[in-house]
Amino acid sequence: MHLDLRYPIGLLLTLYGVILAIQGLTAEAKVLGLNVNLYWGAAMTVCGLIALYFATVRLKPDPTVGGVKPDPTVRGVPPSGGPATPEHEDAV
Question: Taking Cα atoms as reference points, which of 69, 88, 65, 67 lies closest to residue 80?
Fold first, then answer.
């Protein structure tokens, strides 16, 4: 079971942001001449949508999934059990 916290966080931020933005549109309360509820509601909605976007985007799959392992002969990857050797002896 894989639990991704970006889903509930994104949903809550989006829901609360929309509610706050609607409240900011309907109420005439302003702080220093700014409609703070509208601006923070829009910011929360954008952050929630970004979190939901990253929750749905698939990242590169793990190369060991499905029994396929990376090739140990590729340069820079030492064989299992052996020490890593630099490419040039004098570069150490």
Answer: 69
Mutual orientation of helices 6-26 and 36-56 as an angle, nearest 10°? 160
pTM above 0.70, yes or no: no
- Over residues 18-36, the pLDDT tens digits come to 999 999 888 888 888 888 8
Tokens of 8: 């509930």
Contacts of 53 (CB under 8 A, 6+ apart): 10
Collapsing DSSP to helix, strand or coil, 85 comes out as: coil
The Cα-based distances of 40 to 22, 32, 43, 75, 85 in angstroms read 11, 15, 5, 50, 54
